[in-house]
Specification:
The protein is an alpha+beta fold. The chain contains 24 helices and 22 strands. The strands form 5 sheets. A 5-stranded antiparallel β-sheet has the order 2-1-5-4-3. A 5-stranded antiparallel β-sheet has the order 7-6-10-9-8. The longest helix is centred in the middle third of the chain and has 50 residues. The protein is elongated. The termini are far apart. The relative contact order is 0.05. The structure holds adenosine-5'-diphosphate. The site of adenosine-5'-diphosphate has 20 residues, from helix 16 and helix 19. Adenosine-5'-diphosphate binds next to helix 16 and helix 19.
Amino acid sequence: MALVRKTPRLGPADAPRRVAARRSARRAPTLDLRAYQVVIDAISDMVSVVSDDEVYWLVNDAWCRQTGVRRDDAIGRSVAEVLPGSITQRRRDTLNRTLRSGRVSVLRDAFDRGGVKQYLETIYSPVAEAVQGRRCVLLVTRDVTAEATALAAMLAGQTQTRALLDAFPGYIAACDEDHRYTYVNERLAQVLGRPLSELIGALRSEVLPPEHAASSVREAERALQGEQSISERHYAASAQRERLDLELRHVAGPEMADGRRSYYMFGVDITERKLAQEAAVAAKDEAERANRAKSRFLSLMSHELRTPMNAILGFAQLLLSDPAHPLSTEQQQHAGEILRGGRHLLSLINDVLDLSRIETGRLAITLAPVALLPLVEECLALMEPLARERPVHLKLGDRQTLQCQVQADPLRLRQALLNLLSNAIKYNRADGDVTVDARLLGEMVELRVIDTGIGITPDQVGRLFVAFERLGARRSGVEGTGIGLALSRHLVRAMGGEIGVDSALDSGSTFWIRLPRGARSGDPAAFAPVAAPPPGPARVERRRVLYVEDNRVNALLMHAMLARLPGVELEHVEDPIDAIERARTTPPALLLLDIELPGIDGFELLKRLREHEHTRHIPAIAVSASAQPADIHRALKAGFSAYLTKPLDLTELLQAVQSHLRTQRSTQAG
Ligand code: ADP
């Protein structure tokens, strides 16, 4: 570039230099700076040419306008003379560097213009050829105050945004559509275990552990397609940090300047919530495990207790009813006490087991329309012996209102009603009454057990249905466990009903059970108690019964009990495999099979017996200590023709054996 301007004006002190300069300008044919004046005047930026001795050789109109210095007052004068405020050390250094290096330099500096900051950007370009022996620099200066102010504001804004995102108690990242990080906040960088400088620009698949990378990209793609994306991520505890669980949201971001899409990832720390959830699940599991263990223990205990009870109750029954060796009155009393105590224990075992089954939610309830009258009559008949003992009079109310059906589980309704009846008898006065009646209450039937007993005070009513609560009855000498009413309430509620009491002290109590009415079209006969087969005339012919039982005391009892049936011969085999052999070689008329046997159980034994032609048709009765309805159901389904529970009831056993032997005889006869 060659620039020539008219001879620069120098100060009076510089007279010799000025003269020399004018002369030089005239002498330099290639550097006619004036030729450029027109061009540079058209430029809106300030333009000047300054020589290495800091003298102005050329300035344009914009320069004059903005500095307020006339051109003639500048040319030939030094910068320090014309604009003393503008000559700073940085400017001087930049000028010298440009001259030394021969390269373009840019300087941005700020000036104070009457209290207002002015930012100038000056491009220093070396002039290729010397101007009259002096090396020069072309300065193009632009006022960038507006731009610099905006940039400063933007930078300040960015800094604030970053500070905000870093302070935010969450995890934030921004990515482009190739899944490269464009932003990661400090907190997330710490979790990812890499410095920010490494993360920005890196692919998520390079940064995340493999088990998280694929799912993260998948979630991001969903977000980019406008779908909602919420996922969870678990970071196990490491030497560097504690366990961390994040709930992640991927959200589509705005389109970037180059048209590519971006997305954001926001993570919230949900470790506390997860820990609480896990603790709750663990506690629930533990509670369920404990419950299962308790149930197992109770059912085991119940079985273990039933076996010796079988001997206690069985032999007591035999003693009391042995016509060959009748007991003295005193002995009868003693044996009666054994029987009573044993039965009490048995009912306690049954109740505790039921209660535990209710607590573990394993109580099976099967609802069906149940005819009320036959059920009430059956229960009253069962309670008759207890009532006679007191004595208390059992009465049936209006038969008409009892001629209806309720929606209930017949077995469980019977259990609840028997409990109310036994209480009404136990807590009655001598010669008192117990009346059972019913009334309709809209869609419900109310079954009532009304007694003339000691009554209950209002403050006792609240504790009445609490398990093991006896309200002082313990001291009264009346036998009980305090479970009956608690169990009855559970049972009635499980059938969709309610149980309660209306009572006043000394004027008796009315316990009621309300149940939904059953369908009218039901067949009441189907719910009537199965009439026990009348004991037939004793048969004198010898009938062989094979009893498979591994417990010798039980076998002894069975021998003694069946000895009451003349003509019946009992053969006992302990081992089930021996029993198969024995039954095949000499088929008996009836099989009595214990269920809990060593090696193979009663079910398997029956199955094997059914496989052989000699033993296929022999009727089999299950004799077991398990009294669960489910066990009974299973046994009848498996092909047992009856199910007797231990402790054995003498009458029930004798009737069952007799009736089977009769059926067997008539089948054989036919
Ligand atoms: P249990 O009769 O075995 O003690 P229950 O749960 O059946 O247990 O009854 C709880 C308590 O409620 C009894 O101990 C007794 O104090 C009281 N109770 C129950 N029924 C009556 C009743 N008909 N009259 C007076 N008190 C009763």
